[in-house]
Amino acid sequence: MVDASTKKALAQITLLKTKAGPRDGELWVQRLKEEYQSLIKYVQNNKEADNDWFRLESNKDGTRWFGKCWYIHDLLKYEFDVEFDIPVLYPTTAPEIAIPELDGKTAKMYRGGKICLTDHFKPLWARNVPRFGIAHAMALGLGPWLAVEIPDLISRGIVTHKEKDSGGDASK
């Protein structure tokens, strides 16, 4: 189901141990530490592989996450806001990642810009509770979604490069 480079990247993402969600007090604090460590390692690995494609931060409680993700297509960078909340039943329930500015622009998206991960990612997540975390959601959820949907949206003219929109010549 996943290609060799995805398997290699996945193998480098730290697996999590603590099965705790936002309602679990000190256990959630422990889980959040594991999440940050895993995310930091994943971002470092991406940078080393020249595959840096997102930035995330969270609120103080670690229950609301937000940042930027980007996709390079024909040497142009397409950047989007990304956000998600940690579900109450986390980590049993995977987060629903949203790109609000793309809301309604593709069939593979739900209301509010939440990307569709039902068929491929959610069963994989369910088999790997509590070992998968936010870094895994980015690597196996958002990353593949961007790789499939953004080139299609660009080819259909639904997503355009910001420099082209503002009158600059982004084709050079």
TrEMBL record:
<comment type="similarity">
    <text>Belongs to the ubiquitin-conjugating enzyme family. UFC1 subfamily.</text>
</comment>
<comment type="function">
    <text>E2-like enzyme which forms an intermediate with UFM1 via a thioester linkage.</text>
</comment>
<dbReference type="Pfam" id="PF08694">
    <property type="entry name" value="UFC1"/>
</dbReference>
<keyword id="KW-0833">Ubl conjugation pathway</keyword>
<dbReference type="InterPro" id="IPR014806">
    <property type="entry name" value="Ufc1"/>
</dbReference>
<dbReference type="GO" id="GO:1990592">
    <property type="term" value="P:protein K69-linked ufmylation"/>
</dbReference>
<feature type="active site" description="Glycyl thioester intermediate">
    <location>
        <position position="116"/>
    </location>
</feature>
<dbReference type="GO" id="GO:0005737">
    <property type="term" value="C:cytoplasm"/>
</dbReference>
<protein>
    <recommendedName>
        <fullName>Ubiquitin-fold modifier-conjugating enzyme 1</fullName>
    </recommendedName>
</protein>
<dbReference type="InterPro" id="IPR016135">
    <property type="entry name" value="UBQ-conjugating_enzyme/RWD"/>
</dbReference>
<dbReference type="GO" id="GO:0061657">
    <property type="term" value="F:UFM1 conjugating enzyme activity"/>
</dbReference>
